Structure formats: C-alpha cells, structure tokens
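Entry type: protein chain
Record version: 2
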Amino acid sequence: MKVRDVVVLKEVADDLNDGKTFYDQREAGVGDYFWDSQLILYICL
C-alpha cells in the first residue's frame, strides 16, 4: 500500500464544514453522514 500526503486547502475545509452545517440544519446527524462520506473519498485517493 502506498502512503500519500493529501493537502486540503483551507477553502476546501471551509466548504466541507459549510456542507456539514447545511445538512445538519435540515436534519440532525445528516451532516455527520455527509462528512464521513467525504472522508471516505479522500481515503480512496
């Protein structure tokens, strides 16, 4: 398995946090699902 460094720009982190907040405002806990699904995408890089 190769290990890679992934750099997440501040703007990207802000967008992810905004997305989590957006979904949590619609229904509690959905923001966590959004956040987890995004992390899985980064892990798969």
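Comment: The mean pLDDT is 89.
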